[in-house]
Every structure is written in C-alpha cells, then in structure tokens.
Amino acid sequence: MSASRRAAGVHRHVGEQDLSAFIDGELPDEGRAAVEEALDRCVSCRGAHDAISDVAERVRGLELEPPPAGLLPDLPGQEPAPLRLGVGPWLRSLGHPRQLRLAAGVAVVAVGASLLVARVSSPRTTPIPPANIAAGLGMGGDRSGGGTPADSTGSTTSADRGISGAPGVPPVHEGAPQAIGTADPARIARTGEVRLEVARDRFDRTVEAVQAAQAGVAGYTAESRVSEGDNRSAELVVRVPTDRFQEAMTRLRGVARVVSYSTNASDVTKQYVDLQARITGLRAQVGAMTRLLDRASSVPDVLAVQQQLGQLQSQVDQTQGEINYLNQSTAMASITVTVTQQPGSTTPNRIGDALHRAGESFISTLQAVIITTGTLAPLLLLAGGVLLIVLATRRRRPHTA
Amino acid sequence: MGPLQEGLYNLALRSLGDPEDARDVVQESLLRAWVGLPALVDRQTFAGWLYRIAVHHCQNRARSRRRHPVASLDDNVVHLGADDPEGSVIRREQRRELADALLRVTTEIRLAVVLRDINGLSYAEIADALQVPVGTVRSRLSRGRAELRRHLTAASGTQAERPAR
C-alpha cells in the first residue's frame, strides 16, 4: 500500500465473517484489535458492522416463546429435589431417573457392604457340624464329599417351633449362618438327604412311614419315584417347613436303618437383597416408560417405547420368578429320602418262600400248557380230519374190490 | 426442565416455524435422550448432547416438511397492547417479517443463527451441536445474517411499495 493511498484512507475492508464474529465476541484479541481499528477509520466497515449488528439484534429481540404445557414427558424427575452435589442445572432438571438408579446402586452397595461386614465381623452363633456340611447337597452350596455314615446316637434334635413368621420369611435356625446387624433376616435355603435300607417285606411299610413322618411336620411329598423288581427302590423328595427341618430329619432317620444322611444350608440373603433392589429399579423404569408411552405422539416413539417396555417387563418377570423361587426355597426345606431294599435280604421264612416259589412255578407251568394247547389246537384238528378221511377211504377199497 | 426446555422449544419453533412441529421435535428429542441417557458417560456434555439430538430431529423434520411448507408462526398470533395498539401492530409485523426471513434461508444456516442469537450458544457449542467445524459455523452465521438482511430489506421495500400501488 502506497503512502498516498494510506493518506487517502484506502485500506483493506474487514470481511463479513470477521465482522460477524466480532459482534459475537468470538474473534481472538489480535483480530479484534484489527477490526476495532478498521471501524475507527473506515466508514464502509462501520456501515457493514452496523447492518450485521442490526440483523443480529433483531433476531435476538425475538421473544422466547414459552413452551406449551405438557410438553415435557411425564418423567420421574420433572421436579426433583435439589441436588446437593453441585452438578449443573441441567442435571438437576433431568436428574431424577439418574438419581433413582444412583440411589438403587448405592442402596445395593450399602446393603451388600453391611452384609459383608456383618458376616466378617460377627461370629456364627452355632457352627454347622462338619459332618453335616461334608455331605451337603444342592442349592448352590458346596458339595464337599459323599454320604456320611449315620450316627445312631442322633446328634441333632430341635424343638417344634411351629410354622411362624410371615410367608417367605423363615426364622433363623440353629446351625445356620446368620447376618447380624442387617434389616432383613437371614434367608437360608436348607436341603437334606437321607438314605434308608430295609428288608424286602418291610419296603412298602417303610415308604408309608416316610410319608407319615413328613406329614407329621406339616410337610408334603413333592416328587416320588418307585422302581419295582428284585431290587426295589423308592426316592421321595419331601418339602417341610424350614423351621421344622431338623425335626423332620430326626423323624426320617428313625424310620429305618440309615445308610447315610447329609444336610446343607445356603445363605441366599445377599442374592435376595440384590434381587429386591433390582426389581425395585426395574419397576420404576417400567412406570416411567408407561408414562412416556402415554405421551408418545408418533409411531416411531410408540414403537421405541414399547420395545423398551417389553424388555423391561420381561426382566421384571424374570427377576420376580427368581425371588419367588428363593422365597419358596427358604420357606420350605427339601429333603430327598431314598429307600432301598437290602441286598440279599429276603424273608427269613424259607418254607414260605419255597411255597411261594412253588406257587409261582405252578402258575408258570399252567400258563405254558395253556399256551401250547392253544397253539397246537388248529393243527390237531386238521390232523384228525385227515386221519378220518384216510380211514374212510381204506374201508371202502375192499368193499369195491 | 426450565431454561433448557425453553431453549429446545424455541430452537425447534424458530427452525421449523410451526408450534406443533416444534412440540413434536422436543418430545422426540427428550424421548431419545431418555432412552439413551444410560449410555451418556460424560455428564458435562449433557446440554450439548441434548442440543445435538434436537438439531438432528429439526433437520429430519425440516426435510420431511419441504413438500409441505408451513405458514409463518406469527401469522395467527395477534398481541395488541392495550396502551399502544399501533406500536403493537408494528412490532408484530416486524416479528412476522423476521420469522418469514428466517424460514427463507436454508435449514443449516437457520439452525446456526437460531442457536447463536436465540439460544445464545458459543461458536464451539454450535459446532458441537451441528457436528461441523467452528469455521463452518462462522461462515454460516455470516451468510445467514447477510441473507436475512437481504430478505428483510426486500420485505421492507415491498411494504413501502404497497401503499403506492
């Protein structure tokens, strides 16, 4: 640029982009200084600046329209309690669903931690006899060995406490691990196994005695299988109230000679608490989604919400099923009773046995005779007919000769 | 949702020019945000993330509405001040002109202008919402204001010529 042009006020005009950014305060300092200098010196630049600024001001002057009522879907958290964590207002305005999840997570962690601390810090009131644990069965507990030889002296007895407490909330038992210091009572799932051996002629009576024993503690037979034959056996799965588990075991062991028995106790309290927290959170989400569904105004929205809702409902059902299973497992203990016939133990009455065998042989022989006769009868009839014809023919020949 | 809800609604309203569309867009955006909220890792990006969703829905809605242009949002609105009815009419006419002018620029430019001058976002925030570089935001804003000025000038000229006809 020559000195004469500079003296005449000729300079490079500021571009509209720079002016626009200058008006918005988005120019860096050096660019800003250059624009300010140009505006001081150039009428044309000032005019362009004022024109852009005027348009921007007019747009900014458009009044904000208040959103219509009912615009916001009815989410939990439309008006949540103020957060004290110092997060931004936007989080405060939409914070409730996250708060809900956060609260559920914190609750689960707190309960889990308290359970852990309680289990670590508090001694068990009465440890389970190692012999019982050694042959424990089922329900996710450790199965650390085979059957334990029966103790004929009977070391476990318990008073009949009756069925007490709310459904699904069994009382704490002796010999079971307890969670101390938690709001929920400990939930113990108990299982047992008893193997009995009896003589052949006492088999049926023993099975009946097993059923009578479980009925005596308000139990019932959940499953039964009987195998007939030379070595008869029966397997019964009986369910008894958990608080009468030890009594049921004692009664069952008194029915016949015990080959082995075992018990197992699984503490499912943490699992139960986790499931409860999970289903609470899921139900809250289902509620929110249901309200969203009411608000959805377009088909894609409805489909999206319905898809989410279906998945959530499925998870709720599955979790509820697991809770029901745990409730049932902790309210009613399961005992598997196996009754087998002693090997080679037949009735000591040999004469009676001989008569029994003779009778069976007689019937078998009679069956064979009947079958043979029935089989040969058509052939005999045919042979008799042929014989009669032959005889008749022979009698006619001399007469005709 | 307070200010953010108001901002989203006005973004949609000024971008689309139709209150019903704006309502739909905001509800769709909030629904998407609600469904996708668990996947949002950085809470600090929430406002920008929500604006990004709203911009996306505005663009989709604008695309689907091209075959069915709408009237200006102020056509059916009459706010006459009791003390200054003439001034109210003039202001209303100016708002209508501006709203019309806004609807004449392209959607991309309109979104940039609305996000800046109505929602008050910075260039960086606008770039994040529109998923474009900051330089593109500068360019669109500059072009947008120039086009608005041209449309407004043309509208004023038409208004001025009307009595003469």
Task: Please describe what this structure looks like.
The complex is a heterodimer of chains A (401) and B (165). By secondary structure, chain A is α+β, with helices and mostly antiparallel strands. Chain A contains twelve helices and six strands. Chain A has helices at 3-7, 16-23, 29-41, 43-60, 89-93, 95-121, 130-134, 203-216, 245-253, 269-295, 299-331, 350-400, and strands at 148-149, 188-198, 220-227, 233-241, 257-267, 332-341. A six-stranded mixed beta sheet of chain A has the order 1-5-2-6-4-3. In chain A, a hairpin with a 5-residue loop joins β3 (220-227) and β4. In chain A, α6 packs antiparallel against α10 (269-295) and α10 (269-295) runs antiparallel to α11 (299-331). With 165 residues, chain B is mainly α. Chain B has seven helices and no strands. Chain B has helices spanning 3-16, 19-36, 46-65, 85-104, 107-118, 123-130, 134-161. Chain B is globular and about 50 Å long. The termini of chain B are far apart. The model of chain B is unreliable at 71-82 (pLDDT under 50). At the A-B interface, α2, α4, α5, α6 and α10 of A face α1, α2, α3, α4 and α5 of B.
Gyration radius over CA of chain B: 17 Å
Number of strands of chain A: 6
Cα-to-Cα separation, first versus last residue of chain A: 167 Å
Largest sheet of chain B: none
Contiguous helical run count of chain B: 7
Radius of gyration of chain A: 45 Å
Task: Give the overall shape of chain B, derived from the CA principal axes.
Answer: globular
Q: Layout of SSEs?
A:
The complex is a heterodimer of chains A (401) and B (165).
Chain A: H1 3-7, H2 16-23, H3 29-41, H4 43-60, H5 89-93, H6 95-121, H7 130-134, E1 148-149, E2 188-198, H8 203-216, E3 220-227, E4 233-241, H9 245-253, E5 257-267, H10 269-295, H11 299-331, E6 332-341, H12 350-400
Parallel strand pairs in A: 2-6
Antiparallel strand pairs in A: 1-5, 2-5, 3-4, 4-6
Chain B: H1 3-16, H2 19-36, H3 46-65, H4 85-104, H5 107-118, H6 123-130, H7 134-161
Helix pairs in contact in B: 1-2, 1-3, 1-5, 2-3, 3-6, 4-7, 5-7, 6-7
